[in-house]
Amino acid sequence: MTILDGKKVSNDIKDEIKQQVDKMKAKGEKVPHLAAVIVGNDGASLTYVGSKVRACERVGFESTMVRMSNTTSEIELLDKIEELNQDDNIDGFIIQLPLPPQINTQKVLMAVDPSKDVDGFHPENFGKMALDMSTFIPATPFGILELIDRYGVETQGKHTVVIGRSHIVGRPMSILMGRKGFPGNSTVTLTHSRTKNITQITSQADIIISALGVPNFLKAEMVKDDVVIIDVGITRVPDESSPKGYIITGDVDFENVSKKASYITPVPGGVGPMTIAMLLKNTLLAREQRM
Ligand code: NAP
Known about the structure:
With about 290 residues, this protein is an alpha/beta fold. It has two domains: about 30-115, Leucine Dehydrogenase, chain A, domain 1 (Rossmann fold, 3-Layer(aba) Sandwich); about 140-275, Rossmann fold (3-Layer(aba) Sandwich). It is built from ten helices and eleven strands. The termini are far apart. Bound molecules: NADP nicotinamide-adenine-dinucleotide phosphate (NAP).
């Protein structure tokens, strides 16, 4: 069994990006600049944005965190987005989700200039992805592809089962794994909360990409020998013995499933760090496209 070490691979990617940024600096070029907009005080969102800002510092990018109050109106947020769209100094930006209930998320994501949409959530970029055109692939699916690629996991002709159909992970992942090329060329089954007999489906899978957010959902008896497991789930489970009062838990019963798997991502240290590395990669791409 091989651990798909997202922490190591993401550090390799950050080193590669840093080298490119150093070259840009040496030539006197502008370095990539990522902005992150966060509305409200959600603890997990602040942690994620904090990690993104630190990752920018690590590779030599400029970064800006835009904090807006929990009572921000949709109009105020749309105005801020327009400002970022027009700001030549910003190469790419993200709107950290979830947004407070008074704001329509879809409307907000559609207001982002597609050329700065480094999260790849705008319909124009999502459509390009589905049509195999060059675009910003959403960071988490992009990170999963990169892990598969760097470890040389065979995907062609395999049966890939994706659990979860969210717009940011499950749905794009199902499209990408079915694309012509590598990674891809899989036969894909997309499952969700209305899927019947899910165990029957997962136990036929060569590759399982689990993105539902239910801790320890995928058990050893639901998978076959030599399965490849990509665990996207991140859930904070209360734990008094931990200094933070919680532990981060994936969707997969790692201890038992890993005994049957050929490759598996740990949580933490698997898909999570890859997501941030690929956001940086998309931001570098955005800068290069603006030169
Ligand atoms: P989401 O929007 O909450 O969607 C969850 C999906 O799982 C839905 O499609 C839902 O089905 C399905 N589902 C729920 N319970 C199910 C069940 N019992 N059986 C089968 N399917 C079920 O989730 P998300 O935003 O994609 O996030 C999923 C997990 O990944 C979360 O833990 C999140 O924190 C994590 N995540 C991690 C990263 C990372 O960087 N590692 C990035 C993004 C998300 P319906 O559509 O029928 O409701």
